Amino acid sequence: MIFLTFFLGIFCNFIGYVPPGNISLTLVQITINRGLKQALYFISAFSIVEFFFTLLIMHGASWLSQQMKLSTIIDWVMVVLFTVLGFVTWNNRNEEPSKNYSEKDSIRYGIILGIVNPMQIPFWLITGTYLITHEWIEASGFELIVFSLGSAIGAFLCLYIYAKSATYIKNKFALSSKVINKSIAVLFWSFAAYHIIKQIYLMFFKHH
Q: Rounded to the nearest 10 degrees, how much is the dihedral formed by the CA atoms of 148, 150, 155, 158?
């Protein structure tokens, strides 16, 4: 049962990071501009934080799911986060790949984005509530720790594939860093626009 819980954690969080989001796009940017080694520092630091993040969110899933305004708060946090990341990426669009980055920078970046990761809250509220309700896992204790460990590994594996894919695509199609950075910035702003439109729809049109 412990092994099933462990692999369930790996599977769920691997799937959770497959859709492009702020973490995967930031990772692609780091991989292109700083190389795979720095990307691995970022992924490792992020995955460690993801263990504690999953543990915390899953432990409080029942309480968090009852907070009516949580979804709205998350949407506006995502608007700010995507907008800022978009501007940072756009300002660095002319940055050329370099190997002169400190590993501490990538580790620090991974820790910060691991903590400021609001997109995972609704994912774990839905997934966690389902798993706990159907008694696939316990909401506390050693089993939840094992699940969270699997979750961290699942995030690591998925993000590692993102990093390797980014390296492959850049080399295969000889894309310039400037083009990739511009594209990522536009994607960040598109995601921010999506959350704004979503909130406008919910506030002004859904109940009419």
A: -160
